Amino acid sequence: xxxxxxxxxxxxxxxxxxxxxxxxxxxxxxxxxxxxxxxxxxxxxxxxxxxxxxxxxxxxxxxxxxxxxxxxxxxxxxxxxxxxxxxxxxxxxxxxxxxxxxxxxxxxxxxxxxxxxxxxxxxxxxxxxxxxxxxxxxxxxxxxxxxxxxxxxxxxxxxxxxxxxxxxxxxxxxxxxxxxxxxxxxxxxxxxxxxxxxxxxxxxxxxxxxxxxxxxxxxxxxxxxxxxxxxxxxxxxxxxxxxxxxxxxxxxxxxxxxxxxxxxxxxxxxxxxxxxxxxxxxxxxxxxxxxxxxxxxxxxxxxxxxxxxxxxxxxxxxxxxxxxxxxxxxxxxxxxxxxxxxxxxxxxxxxxxxxxxxxxxx
Amino acid sequence: xxxxxxxxxxxxxxxxxxxxxxxxxxxxxxxxxxxxxxxxxxxxxxxxxxxxxxxxxxxxxxxxxxxxxxxxxxxxxxxxxxxxxxxxxxxxxxxxxxxxxxxxxxxxxxxxxxxxxxxxxxxxxxxxxxxxxxxxxxxxxxxxxxxxxxxxxxxxxxxxxxxxxxxxxxxxxxxxxxxxxxxxxxxxxxxxxxxxxxxxxxxxxxxxxxxxxxxxxxxxxxxxxxxxxxxxxxxxxxxxxxxxxxxxxxxxxxxxxxxxxxxxxxxxxxxxxxxxxxxxxxxxxxxxxxxxxxxxxxxxxxxxxxxxxxxxxxxxxxxxxxxxxxxxxxxxxxxxxxxxxxxxxxxxxxxxxxxxxxxxxxxxxxxxxxx
Lengths: 362, 371
Prior knowledge:
The complex is a heterodimer of chains A (362) and B (371). Chain A has 362 residues and is an alpha/beta fold. Chain A has helices spanning 2-11, 49-56, 78-86, 109-121, 138-143, 152-161, 174-182, 219-228, 288-316, 325-330, 338-343; strands at residues 24-26, 29-34, 40-47, 68-75, 92-94, 100-104, 130-134, 189-196, 199-209, 212-216, 235-241, 244-262, 265-280, 346-357. Chain A has two domains: 21-216, no CATH class; 219-357, Nutrient germinant receptor protein C, domain 3 (GMP Synthetase, Chain A, domain 3), CATH 3.30.300. In chain A, the strands form four sheets. Chain A has a five-stranded mixed sheet, with helices on both faces. Chain A is globular and about 80 Å long. Helix content of chain B is 71%, strand content 0%. Chain B has 17 helices and no strands. Chain B has helices spanning 7-19, 28-34, 38-60, 72-75, 77-109, 116-131, 135-157, 167-170, 178-187, 198-201, 210-239, 241-244, 250-255, 268-275, 277-294, 304-323, 328-369. The longest helix of chain B is centred in the C-terminal third of the chain and has 42 residues, at 328-369. Chain B starts with 6 loop residues before the first helix and ends with a helix. At the A-B interface, helix 1, helix 7 and helix 10 of A face helix 6 and helix 12 of B.
């Protein structure tokens, strides 16, 4: 029996799966875009051994030599493209450490769904890897070196992992994308990644309908979508009070949505509880009555913007908030007409704002 | 292979004999077939498990000191022998499914290049090694491993609470359709496969402990129900119903999301999945013990040597069976197509036969003794 146990320890040592670090090409970022003739291009961004060494001693990679290199392949499927890329790399392309996946906004719906299916079926692939979409050439994105000196994928990981660092928390993982793609009454959305001067710019959301981006929100619209998704962390919005400009910052919201059945359809209800900090107000104007008036003004302003946004999403047939998802789950017979139900639904937005801080001046 | 076990060991061993059968796939079939009524289907299958356990305890009381797997005095040889074969086939099939399933999990997520047979052999060998010794030693091992695995699972599972996005799917629906509810409960009934181990285990209790042991077994089943209820909320709430029904191992897929960036082992959820190997081991070791012991009435002098020989024999069969499934697709088809109805027949059709035979035997004995 001791022999049996010894055998078990030896067999489970993982020798079959062992690759020395020199033989591994640890992929940190994957970029995918459509190629000619219905093919698909895949780029794998791999850190150089020097960059990896510098990470292990907690210093930034040297600016003299590139921190990463990119190997790419083209094929009918992602797997075929990966096989071609593998032929160009001396190391084993290892996907167990992928931090970021950037998809082209030009990917056709069928290719997009193939990509997500491929990602879902790779066992070691981490489902918490971040996903973004970009209208820029993907090869260029994967070769971009951020000014902050971090490896590009690590820069993006740092960007997306901080919930309260950005105006809107736009992080989406492979898991989120899979879940939204499968859920009836829920449209997928992804952050838009743009190559911007020396850094990336990420302040917009792309809304998908069945694997195809049909609407890219402006940064302002993205803030309002963020309120509906409880993802806006610290927006600053301008308002007017008695004709004078005022501003409220750190505006965040707790939003609950539900559906009310009505004759011939449903009504979508969004209930926003907003709070913010008074940013600018003319001196001497910080009275109870003025604060109350400002709260009403903020509520009105946000409600109007939300209503416009929801109506425009209805016209496009996209519902990133998932208003209808709970209702469809309970009323499965309505699934076939879900799109029609959403497009024709009435909308009600209720906003209740509270100013919770005024600073230390009146 | 001999010796008495305590009340706690009985309850733990009995519970450990069924937890592994469902932990990886639960609650896929429930949600896929019962839809919004899945929560009611879950409650129904739990009630059915309590009822099934109650039935087997009634059967155990007919001959509390002898295993009922082969009972010619109760059923006649013509019925008892097929009943024994049925029992053996069932236990082998259960062990095969659990070994094969866990090997697929290890192979898909951790040891991709390692041959499946190696992973399957490791599970069978370790389980066989623990079952090699007497029953109290086996019971003590199971008691330690099982309770440890439950506590760690609950602690790490709670870290998934912030990931819940589909609260609506967990909330019970006010509208109930009976057909999907019943079908979901039937298809998801694998959750409690294995409590029939009591047939073999019961005689090892001290006579004065048996009534209390039954109560403890019910309490342990109630705790398991709560454990799976938590699993239901977490997997369904995190995955959402549509994604969940596409996952082969919903529990594993969900647990993989537990990620503590600042902790030494950031992928704590994946570590937990390897811990679930303890559930698998306790399941297989109790199953192998049961198989080797169940055939004892067929031998005139069933020695420790015979027991170990049988252990090796059944271990080899389980390994061969587990290796005969090339992918999880065939395994799921086998479990759903063959094992679900078979276990249901075993648990709800066999006990009435035994109980009827016991009542007849009792009546005959009463007639003989009456003047």
